[in-house]
Amino acid sequence: MEMEMSQASIDSDQRKFALPVDSEHKATEFRLFSVAAPHMRAFHLSWISFFACFVSTFAAPPLLPIIRDNLNLTATDIGNAGIAAVSGAVFARIAMGTACDLFGPRLASASLILITTPAVYCSAIINSPVSFLLVRFFTGFSIATFVSTQFWMSSMFSANVVGTANGVSGGWGNLGGGATQLIMPLVFSLIRNIGATKFTAWRIAFFIPALFQTLSAYAVFFLGQDMPDGNFSRLQKSGDKHKDNFNKIFRNAITNYRGWILLLTYGYCFGVELTVDNIIAQYFYDRFNVNLHTAGIIAASFGLANIFSRPGGGFLSDIVAKRFGMRGRLWTLWIVQTLGGLFCILLGKVGSLSASISVMIVFSVFVQAACGLTFGVVPFVSRRSLGIISGMTGGGGNVGAVLTQVIFFRGSRYSTETGITLMGVMIICCTLPLFFIYFPQWGGMFCGPSSEGTTEENYYMSEWNSTEKDRGFHQASLKFADNSRSERGKKVDSAPSPSNGILPTYA
To answer: Which family does it belong to (predicted)?
Structure first.
């Protein structure tokens, strides 16, 4: 009788949603062409808003030859502005992760997008190298919405499809970095054809990404929903969600070494992607003497590969995990990112236009797929501090971009082609620490699960103290632990099930 009532309750819960869900009401299927609320609507709102922020942040590079002449920018000015565009988001991403943990991804994302929009509008009135650097710096904060995108998807989709959801949302958002290489030169040309001078046309062109970003913020706020069961504020008021303590979630995040390793490795996949977005159009323009429009098309092909490469990485992570669990996710990430490093070295070595384009496209596929593979691992590092772990990892991408541009692409110490080669070496070296990631319930790249019989419940319950457990704050983590058993895989040793042999379900 009790089993019948339990099954009826589950069936009743699932009828609330258009997609099949698990015990946390996270979707267990990913239907790309659906816009059903709340799961798929959140997906489309997240990638479109992140796309808008990427367009705004990288709107300047495809027009740099024009802006450079108008503002009398030196190579150092351009390098500093490129660094500024990605450096601000280092801390913004960590702050965004905290905001997601405390207030929810919807409010956190919409707020940041609106706060940074004025900087995009102000790009139209800058008149000096300093003001150019400042608008790029403040606009760059907006790409911290990547964190809310990944947090949102991890809150909406179950373990078996979370890699795919994170990969597609992040990848399609990153498309903005490639799309803007086509959009901005096209908008510039249209404005020139209307009759504006070239030094006026580039300024007017910035109103397009600014307006797009503004509209995306309102869409997220009014149409989005934080979690399958509602927004954070309502769930906290009703008592259905524990309002967590900042100090505890922050301490839990920074003491988990896995987050720091992923911060480093992500610095040399996404960080490299940001770096290439900043330098690639000018690289082809200067080295191969192509015109501005052609350089933009070539550069766009790098970013536009995100339409399938990063999503492909997330999808591959989920596919491999079905057979080999978390250990398969880690091995696949290391292999793909290392291959990306090898192709990056080759890109700096080839000297013909056609060969450079071909190698760049292959390189883009691997480095972007590594980004998707990384966020196939991130959701499992911590349940309680998911936002901050996501923020740390995402911030690592910006740190990697800043360091790479400071060391290899600022000033005239290295030629751009030499800098690209050395960047490839850094990718390979900074991917090696993945060898040290170990989950006691699932194992690592070289070792199986702990012989002590650690289970998913043991791992995720360790984030809560006895007082918090007595008050029931850990219930969501219990559900997550149950749903993450899929990370054991089918072809590797796994941690034992609970001693009674019955997998628990939690109401």
So the answer is: Belongs to the major facilitator superfamily. Nitrate/nitrite porter (TC 2.A.1.8) family.
pTM of the model: 0.83
CA 37 to CA 29: how far, in whole Å?
14
HSE value, Cβ hemisphere, 13 Å, CA-based, for 396: 23
Claim to verify: residue 442 and residue 418 sit in the same structural domain = no
Could you give the CA distance from residue 59 to residue 356 in angstroms, rounded to a whole number?
A: 23
Q: Any residues with CB less than 8 A from the CB of 33 and at least 6 apart, and which?
A: none
d(CA 369, CA 346): 18
pLDDT at residue 172 tops 90: yes
Separation CA 147–CA 97 (nearest Å): 6
SS3 content of the chain, % helix, strand, coil (to 5): 75, 0, 25
| CB of 204 closer than 8 Å to CB of 124 | yes
Measured CA to CA in angstroms, residue 22 lies from 11, 74, 240, 265, 459 at distances of 11, 56, 17, 31, 20
- pLDDT over 90 percentage in the chain: 65
Tokens of residue 146, six digits: 């990547």
**Predicted local distance difference test score (pLDDT) of residue 15:** 55
Residue 86 — pLDDT band, cuts 50, 70, 90? confident
Residue-range definition of the domain harbouring residue 479: 437-498+503-507
Query: Is 176 in contact with 192 (CB distance < 8 Å)?
Result: no
Tokens representing residue 12 in the block: 């009743």
Listed residues 436, 469, 484: the one ending a domain:
436
In whole angstroms, how far apart are CA 135 and each of 30, 62, 266, 430? Answer: 37, 16, 26, 31
Predicted pLDDT of residue 277: 81
Alpha-carbon distance 433 to 411, whole Å?
A: 30
Look at residue 439 and give its three-state secondary structure: strand
For residue 237, give Cα distances in angstroms to 59, 156, 232, 240, 243: 41, 20, 8, 8, 9
Query: Cα-flanking dihedrals φ and ψ of residue 438, to 5°?
Result: -140, 125
Q: Tens digit of pLDDT for each residue in 414-436?
A: 888 899 999 999 999 999 999 99
Q: Residue 498 is which amino acid?
A: P
pLDDT bucket at 253, cuts 50 / 70 / 90: very high
CATH of the domain at 271: 1.20.1250.20
State which H helix or E strand residue 444 sits in: strand 443-444
How many angstroms separate the CA atoms of 292 and 159, rounded? Answer: 44
Helix intervals (H) in 378-471: 386-408, 416-431, 456-461, 466-470
Both 348 and 414 in a single domain? yes
Element (DSSP H or E) covering residue 492 = none
Domain boundary among 412, 436, 460: 436
pLDDT level of residue 471 (50, 70, 90 thresholds):
confident
Backbone angles phi, psi at 17, to 5 degrees: -125, 150
Same domain, 396 and 487: no
